[in-house]
Amino acid sequence: MSEILNLKPPAAWQFMQEHPDAVLIDVRTTCEHLFVGRPVGAVLVPLKDGLPMQSNPNFVPSVKEIVPDPATPILFLCRSGHRSLEAARLMAAEGYQTLVNIDEGFEGPLDADKHRSTLGGWRFHGLPWEQN
């Protein structure tokens, strides 16, 4: 099985600059992607979606369609880094070679007031993002 790199958002951004062929896949729900925000250029492939969240049975085939070459680097992002790690593990089992879990995700961990984006995450680090 392939090794999965765990990179904080600034290191993941640097990795993307050094690997222009890399694909950034946002595995959050459709609503999170659209309304909370997303990294510029991220491709949405929910690992789980809906209310209540249910596993996406088309996750692996969808990623394979977007990234047909297992040698292409793939970065995975979710809210805090847990679903993205699960996604990376699924693709490692499919033979994909260069996989990156973006630790802290888009919003980072909860702070003492149960708020996100104050301690870490893509937005916290000021990396390029957009929202609807």
Automatic annotation (TrEMBL):
Gene3D superfamilies according to UniProt: Rhodanese-like domain (3.40.250.10)
SMART domains: RHOD
Domain Rhodanese: 18-118
Xref: InterPro entries: Rhodanese-like_dom (IPR001763), Rhodanese-like_dom_sf (IPR036873), Thiosulfate_ST/Rhodanese-like (IPR052367)
Top-rank taxon: Bacteria
Pfam families tied to this protein: Rhodanese (PF00581)
SUPFAM superfamilies reported in the protein's UniProt record: Rhodanese/Cell cycle control phosphatase
PANTHER family to which the protein is assigned, alphabetical: RHODANESE-LIKE DOMAIN-CONTAINING PROTEIN 15, CHLOROPLASTIC
Annotated protein name in UniProt: Rhodanese domain-containing protein
